[in-house]
Write a structure and sequence with these properties.
Number of helices: 9
Keywords: CBS domain, Repeat
Protein name: Helix-turn-helix transcriptional regulator
InterPro entries: CBS_dom, CBS_dom_sf, CBS_domain-containing, HTH_11, UCP026546_HTH-CBS, WH-like_DNA-bd_sf, WH_DNA-bd_sf
Helix content: 40-55%
Order of helices and strands: HHHEEHHEHEEHEHEEH
Organism: Wansuia hejianensis
CATH superfamily of the largest domain: CBS-domain
CATH topology of the largest domain: CBS-domain
Largest sheet: 4 strands, mixed
Number of domains: 2
Structural class: alpha+beta
Shape: elongated
Pfam families: CBS, HTH_11
Oligomer: single chain
Number of strands: 8
Bound molecules: adenosine-5'-diphosphate
CATH class of the largest domain: Alpha Beta
Length: about 210
C-alpha cells in the first residue's frame, strides 16, 4: 500500500468533499476562501492518488483510498477492551516453583500477581531465570519476593486505545500489560480484568494488512 502524507489543506478538502459530494472545484475553493487556481495542485494530487474522483460537469467524489490519517484513526478507534486476552493471575504467596509450573501450563511469558485479589506485581520469564541462577529455594520463597511490584507496574484501562497500549509496551520494553479496573474511585487498588500482549497488537497489524 502506498501511504501518502497529506497537507492540512488537502485534509480539509477531503472533509469538504465527504460532506458535500458531488461538489465542484469552485465550491470547494469558496468554502476555503481560496481561488480555484490555488487549489488546482491539491486537487490533482488527491485525484491522482485515488482519494478523490473528478467527474466532468458533476464534481468531486470521495473514493477513500486509505491515507495515513485513515489508518491512524482506525487504529485509535480500537480499544483495549475490544482485543484483550484473559489474564493469568497468581496470589503473592504462591511458591516460585508453582509459578514456574503454572507459567508452562498456561503457556504465557508473564503472570500478574495479586494480594487478596488486588494487583500487586508482575513476574516474567527473566525474573524467574534470574532467581534460579541465584540459587533461591524455589519451593520456599513466594513470588511476592521476586516480582516487580506496584507502584512500578505499567497498566492500561479497558477504554484506552490500543495505540496507547502499544506505545507503553515499546516505551517500557515489556511484553505485556495488565488491563485494570479501579475497585473504587478513591484509591489506587486495581482488579486485573485482562491482558494485552505483543501478540494482541500483532494480530491487529495482520488484520489491517489483510483488510479484514
Ligand atoms: P521477559 O522477562 O520475558 O523479557 P518482560 O520483558 O515483559 O519479559 O519483562 C522484563 C521485566 O519487566 C521483568 O523484570 C518484569 O517483571 C517487568 N515487567 C513485565 N511486565 C511489566 C509491566 N506491565 N509493568 C512493569 N514491569 C513489568
Amino acid at each position: 500500500m502506498m501511504v501518502i502524507q497529506l497537507s492540512e489543506r488537502q485534509e480539509k478538502i477531503i472533509e469538504i468533499v465527504k460532506g458535500n459530494q458531488p461538489i465542484t472545484g469552485e465550491e470547494i475553493a469558496n468554502q476555503l476562501n481560496l481561488t480555484r487556481s490555488t487549489l488546482r495542485p491539491d486537487l490533482s494530487i488527491l485525484t491522482m492518488s485515488g482519494i478523490l474522483d473528478a467527474r466532468p460537469r458533476v464534481g468531486y467524489f470521495f473514493i477513500g483510498k486509505p491515507s495515513l490519517n485513515y489508518i491512524s484513526d482506525e487504529i485509535k478507534s480500537i480499544l483495549v477492551e475490544d482485543i484483550k486476552s484473559i489474564p493469568v493471575i497468581l496470589e503473592e504467596s504462591t511458591s516460585i516453583y508453582d509459578a514456574i509450573v503454572f507459567m508452562f501450563l498456561e503457556d504465557v511469558g508473564s503472570i500478574y500477581i495479586t494480594n487478596n485479589g488486588i494487583l500487586s506485581g508482575v513476574i516474567s520469564r527473566k525474573d524467574i531465570i534470574r532467581t534460579v541462577m541465584g540459587g533461591t529455594d524455589l519451593y520456599k520463597v513466594p513470588i511476592g519476593v521476586i516480582m516487580t511490584r506496584m507502584p512500578n507496574i505499567i497498566y492500561v484501562k479497558p477504554k484506552d486505545s490500543v495505540l496507547t497500549a502499544a506505545m507503553k509496551l515499546i516505551e517500557h520494553e515489556i511484553d505485556s500489560l495488565p488491563v485494570v479496573e479501579g475497585i473504587d474511585n478513591s484509591n489506587k487498588d486495581y482488579r486485573v480484568v485482562g491482558r494485552i500482549t505483543k501478540t494482541n497488537i500483532t494480530r491487529i497489524f495482520v488484520e489491517l494488512g489483510n483488510n479484514i
